[in-house]
Amino acid sequence: MIQSPLNTNVYQKFQESLEYVRMADKYGFDAVFCGQHYLTYPYTMLQLIPFLSRIMAESKRLYFGTGILLLALYNPVDVAETIASMDIISGGRLIFGVGLGYREEEYDAFGISKEDAPKRFNECLAAVKMLWTQDIVNFEGKYFKLKNVRLTIKPLQKPYPPIWIAANSDKAVEKVAKLGHVWYANPHVTINTLKRQMEIYLNILKKIIILNLHLSLF
Fold first, then answer.
1. Where are the domains of the chain?
2. Is the dihedral of CA 10, 83, 34, 23 positive or negative?
């Protein structure tokens, strides 16, 4: 919806995107998701957060999702306040989709090592959830440190918007399930791979549910 060849009339493409959202609303779709990339040559691409914030105004029913926000490139305070703001603007219809991404040029341009990305991602997500659910946050990580931080704007959805995490490998899918979040499935693999990984994801969730039920009896 937001990525086009360089010779595209970007404003016209944006107007078409607004019409797509209106059509999705009219014909009973449930949600609209938008991706994110930087430095997209030879394509042009509107940035996710301002674009999604604008198109949300075209529907009072649809859910809108970041699909995906490149979380390892961000500071958790910025993410927490921005996503909380968007959730409020949408009337509590935001889905918080996040992932690592895969493009070296994006990490290089931000001065971040791609090898550090998984740990930065984990720290940022943990800190964001704390900022949304705690009055005063103290967080000590390798990449992010927060001391007596008080977030004055919280998401409308409680405890926070649904979190969808992109995962491609079996190990990453297992991790998403153990966190109890929604798996944002890989769009580039075969149906058979998705079926196998869905079984991995659901089996871990079932084990967590059974464990929680067992603990609740005591």
1. 3-166
2. negative
CB count, 10 Å around CB of 42?
7
Question: Right CATH number for 3-166 from 1.20.1070.10, 3.30.360.10, 3.40.50.620, 3.20.20.30?
Answer: 3.20.20.30
C-beta neighbour count of 133 within 10 angstroms: 14
CA-nearest of 90, 91, 82, 102 to 37 is: 102
Within a 13 Å sphere around the CA of 218, how many CA atoms are in the beta-carbon half? 4
* Strand, helix or coil for residue 147: strand
Q: Are the CB atoms for 120 and 143 separated by under 8 Å?
A: yes
Residue owning tokens 């968007």 = 86
CA distances 17 to 43, 173, 188, 208, Å, are 16, 31, 23, 40
What percentage of residues in the chain have a pLDDT greater than 70?
A: 98
SS3 at position 133: helix
Three-state secondary structure call for residue 44:
strand
User: Tens digit of pLDDT for each residue in 39-84?
Assistant: 999 999 999 999 999 999 999 999 999 999 999 999 999 999 999 9
* CA 33 – CA 26 distance, rounded (Å): 17
pLDDT in tens, 111-126: 999 999 999 999 999 9
